[in-house]
Amino acid sequence: MFGLLGCGGGDSETKPLACSWLDGDNCWKSILTAAEACVAPQTESGTLDVGRASCTYASGPVITFNPALTLPVPDAALWKFQIARQGATCLTYNEISEDNFDLTVGDQVFKQRVAGTSVNFTCPDGTSYSGNQISLLLCDLDGFPGKAKSSSGTAVSLSFLGGSTSELQVLSCGQ
What is the reported pTM? Predict the structure, then answer.
């Protein structure tokens, strides 16, 4: 269902993260393109269950939060969820900290790790790209992997940034 998401030579070496990676066809953009087949249409909102443990969309995706959400989501809370279509998990998002996360689409895993000003992206093929975030400020940051999260007392949303379409809404759920 999901194509190969290469961004390097298939080995597990670390390469320098440069503007050319951010601007080019990279594995972040590829994994977000693959995620489009899993998420609900960008104009659709889902409905949170009473316990805020899941969100269901009329078009089929079901998001399961682990742990269940507290609304509004506390600033320090780590977001962890799975999206399933027709009973099969097609996307998993796991925040390890505010800046560190794993995104799995199908059997492809993208990892972001930040330590101080250093950032490392590991592509599904095992190739890593590392660089200094300050030196990357000279780049066009539209291609920089990121996320936008928001919540209120009745709704929650998360989008990934830096893809081919700049933003991919992954979830938008309300009571």
Answer: 0.89
